[in-house]
Predict the 3D structure of the following.
Amino acid sequence: MLPFVIKRLVSLTLSLVAASLVIFFVIEVVPGDPASFMLGLNASPETVAALRDSLGLNASAPIRYWQWITGLLQGEFGISYTYKVPVRDLILDRIWISMPLAVYALILSTVIAFPVGVLAASRRNSPTDVSIMGVTQLGIAVPNFWFGMLLVLLFAVTLGWFSAGGFPGWEAGFFAGMKALTLPAVALALPQASILARVMRSSLLDTLGEDFVRTARAKGLTRRQALWRHALRNALIPVLTIIGLQFSFLLAGAIIIENVFFLPGLGRLVFQGITQRDLIVVKSVIFLLVFAVILVTFIVDITYAIADPRLRRARS
Amino acid sequence: MALLEIENLALSIKGTPILRDIDLKVDAGEVAGVVGESGSGKSMTAMAIMQLLPVGTQWQGAIRLDGKALETYSEKDMCALRGNDIGMVFQEPMTALNPVQTIGDQVAETILVHSGKSRSEARRIAREALNRVGLPEAQFPLDRYPHDLSGGQRQRVVIAMAIALQPKLLIADEPTTALDVTTQAQILRLLKQLVDEDGMGLILITHDLAVVADMADHIVIMKEGEVVEAGNTLDLFRRMKHPYTKALFEASSHVPVRNPVHVAERGEPVIEVSSVVRDYPLPRRSLFKAPGHFRAVDNVSLAIMRGENVGLVGESGCGKSTLTRAILALDPIQAGEIKLNGGVFSTSGEGPDRDMRRRVQVVFQDPYSSFNPRHRVDRLIAEPFHLLESQPDRADKRRRIDAALTNVGLSPSDAHKYIHEFSGGQRQRIAIARALIIEPSLIVLDEAVSALDVSIRAQILDLLADLSDRLAISYLFISHDLSVVRAITDRVLVMKSGQVVEEGSTEDVFRDPQHAYTRELLAATPILDEALKAREARAAAK
C-alpha cells in the first residue's frame, strides 16, 4: 500500500508542476495589459511603463514564473492589481464560503444518492425503481440556477424560513452560516445526486449479476445480505469516480449559484478577476482550484485502492 | 428414501417451457452425472434444487430433500438450507469469488451465516476446510485475495466454501470445464474423495461423457429440457437405448475421415518459424533500473507443410496463445524469423506487408463475440477483401461469397442474414468462411472448437478435415483438448513454459510420449473408452 501512495504522490507533484506551467503561459498570452487597464485609457505611456516596472511585469518570463512559484510555496500570492490587497486574503475570505458549500453539497448529494440508488437497484423494474428513475431524469434536466430560484421563492419568499441570499459570515455562528448555505447547497446537490443515484443503480445492477453474488446466495445469504456484503463494495468504484469529479465541479463550478444567492465565493472572484484583467488573482485562484482537483483525484485513487485490493498490487 | 428425489419436474420462465418431466434420484455417498449439451436444461435443474431461479420462473412437480418437499420451504428456510445442507460449485472459478474479500472471510462467511459460532471459531473451521481441499496454510493463509490464486486454486476455494459445513448434497455445475486437464484431474479426484469421506451425495453436471464415465455411479442424459435416458453408468453405456445417447457417444470420440492427398512431404514449408522469442516487459519496479521482462515464447521453431495439420497443445500460460499472436504478426517478436512460402513474413525488426498478411487467417474460440452484430453475413465474410491489391468487382465478390458459404456447408441465401440469426456452430462456420474467402495458405484455429457442444464439434471437425483435403490448406490447430488434436492433426507440438518440449507425428506422440510433461498431460486427459474399461474391471472385481 505504501509504495502505491508514494507513487500517487509523485504523480500528484508532477501534475501540479505541469498545471502551473500551463496556467502561467496561458495567462501570458491572454490579451490585455494589466498596467494600462489599471490606469485607464488616458494614462501616459511613461506612467504605464513605470507601473509595469513596479508590478514586476518587465522581468523575463522564467524569472516571473520562478517568483510566482516560490511565492506560492511561501503562501505569498502577490498583490491584486484591482483590489490592492494581498491575493491570499482575497482567497482566504472566499474559500471559507466556497469550500464549505462544496462539501455541504457533496455530502447532501451522496447522502441522498446512496440509499436511493441502492433502493432502485434492489427493486429493479418495480414501480419504486421506475419513479426513482423518472425523478432523477428530471433532476438532471432541470438547471440548478432555476431550481435555486424556485427554492428561494418557496422557502425564502413564501415561507420565510431562509433568507433569499447573502452570507452573514462565520462570525455570526456556525449554524447561521450553514443556514445561509443550505438553499444553495440543495440547489447544487440535487442534479449531482440524480446523476450519482443513477450511476449507483446501474453499477449495483451490474455487480448483482456477477457470478460471485450467485456464489454468495448459494452459501445461504439472503438477497439483501448478498447485496450489502458482496455487491455494494464492488459497485463503488464507478461511484467514487463520479464523486471525485463532482467535488471539483462543485468547488469551481458554482459561479452561477453563487450569483443567484449573492455569495462572495471563489467562482465570483475568478469571474471578476477575468473581467478586470486582474491576472494575478486569476492565476492564483485557478492554480488553487487545479490543486484542489488534483488533490481530490489523489484521494479518490487512494480510496480505490482501499475499496479494491487488486489495484493495490497492480499499481504499486 | 433417497437423499434427493426429483419427480416430474416441469419449469417455465415467463410462459416459455424450459424443463419437462425431469426425474432424478441421488443417494448419500453416490455420484449422479447429469449430461447434456448447452440448452439441455442441466444448469436450470441445479438452480431448481437450489431454488435460485430467475424472476418469472414457475415450476411444478416434486423436489424432495431427505423426504421433505422443497415447495413447503419459505425463502427463509431455503436460505438456511443453502450452504448448510446443499453446497454448490460453479463453472467459472475466475469470477465465482468476490474480488474484494479475502478467501478466509469468504469461506468463514458460510459458517457465520448458518451457525452461531464466533468469528474466530468460524475462521478456524474455514482453515480446516481450506486444508482439506489442498490449500495449506503455509502458501494459502486466510488473508489471501482471490486475484493471487490460479483458476484451479480458486475452484478449490469455492469447493471449500461449499463443503465447510459438510452438506448432505453437493451440486457441481461444470466444475472443471474452464480448467486445464491436469487441474481438472486433481479437482475431480478431490470431489470424489470428499464424497467418499463425508458420504455426501454429488450431482456432477457436465457436457463431457468421459468425465461422467469415470466419476458417476449413474447418469441422466438430458436434451432440450427432457431426460432422454437414465441409468447405471455401465448399463447405460452398454445399452445406449436412446439414439441421442448414441449420437453423443459417437460425437465425443469422433474422428473425421481424412484423405490428405495433398500433403507435400518435401519442398518448401508453408510457414517456417525459426527461433522465435517473444518477451513481455514487466512493470517497472524502480525509476533507475530498466524494467525486466517475461519470456513467454522461448526460442520456438516449427514448420508446416502444404496441406498439413499441425496441433499445438499445452496448458494455460504455456505460451501457445502468445506464439499464435506472433505467428499472426499481431505482436512484434524480439528475435528469430517467420517465413511464409519461402519469403520473409516477419522478423524482430518488422512485420509483414498486406499481401503477406492476407495469406494467414485465423478462427477464434468464441463464435459469439468475434463478429460485429450490426453487419450482415456477406459483409462480415467479405471483410478480408480489403487486404487484396485490387478489389474484386461486384459479381466476382458475390460469386466468392457464395462459394465460401457453400464450402462451409451454408447456403448463399444466408448472406443477407445477421449474425444473431445463427447458432454457435453456424457462426463458427461463418468464421471459417471469412478465413477461407481470400484463399490463405495457413489458417490458425485458436481453440476453434472448444466452445462448441460435442455434436457440433464433430460436424466442424468434419468440415475442417474436408476443407483441408479439398483445398490443401494447412492448419495450425491450437487446443487444450487433446482428444480433438488427436482426431484432426498430422503432427503435434507440446509446449510448456514457452518452449516446445516434444514434437512428432500425432500418432507417435499419443502412443508413446517421450517427455514427462506429455505423459502427465495424457494421463490427466479423461478418455471415455478407458474410463469405461476401468469401471468394468472394478465391477468385475466386486
Notes: The interface with chain A takes residues 50, 52, 75-76, 79-84, 87-88, 90, 92, 95-101, 109-110, 113-114, 145, 147, 158, 161-162 of chain B (CB under 8 Å).
